[in-house]
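Standup notes
- DV: blocked on the single-chain target, sequence here:
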Amino acid sequence: MEIKEEPCRIKEEETEEQIDEDGNAVSSQTEQTFGQAGKTEVEESFCCTECGESYSDEYTFRDHQLSHSDIKTFSCDQCGKTFVLEKHLRQHLQVHSSVKPHVCFCGKSYTTIYKLKEHQVIHTEPHVCSDCGNTFSSLTNLRRHQNIHTGEKPYQCSHCEKSFTQPGGLKAHEKVHTGEKPYVCSDCGKSFGTTSNLNTHQRIHTGEKPYTCSQCGKSYSDKGNLNVHMKIHTGEKAFSCTECGKSFAHKNTLKDHQLSHSGVKLFSCDQCDKTFINAAYLKRHLPVHADVKPHMCFCGKSYGTMAKLKRHQRVHTGERPYTCSYCAKSFPYSESLKAHERTHT
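- DV (later): unblocked, structure below
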């Protein structure tokens, strides 16, 4: 590519090129320099013949020109992404690290200086959502957030019909189609499509359970599991079967139930003639054929599945997670609750 070194004037707003965590080019404004009497100084600079951008520094100018090239010689050895410049690769590598060296005075930390600067706008000129009061560092982020309140889902997957309120949701979803899993657990080597899924998984190794039920004190490593658990206390059953009218607290439970109307049981036990509507039920059944009961209670009793062990342990803990929607009486087992509720009807 030809470098045309011709005099030109610095634009009113010069931009300093950086990249975000995904390797995309972003711009942050830098201040003008002023000479005497507040007049803008005019400098000789290097002009890009491709886009007209101008730079006072030759090295910055040459780096910029590479952005017009398709040649990306610097490759990430963890996820395969490629970059034009080595410094962009260095910035990207922080995505794979748990280290967040750029700390705001409010305590929040970020992997890149760009993310920190973007966050710090909240402390100076925040954009406030009129519906919920949340603040955002840019008008663009505020508008994206407001899709949650309006229900608008403008970000459409190019592989299927799913759409999303946020571009980040779409980006995470598309990895389902591509199979991309760049985030690797340092403890066991398992890989994930998003950092949030990796962080949730790593709690298996640390034992951390930050999400606690306000009703019974039970804690979970994942917020979604807490939300599922809370429905035990509220009695909410929002998913109804169109065939028989039976309602369920969870969408997946409804899907499993609906298979019972079809009579289709695709999952067969290779040791007996039993068939099951899903793989999870078959997996629970298989320990019946094994003498091994790896899940042991401190009292000495052992069980073939973790679910059976947890059920047994309620004898020791006194936990009663199933609450009657009529009289608030609670029970350790779901079948006990069902039997009790028949007394009200």
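- Follow-up: The CA atoms of residues 49 and 229 lie 61 Å apart.
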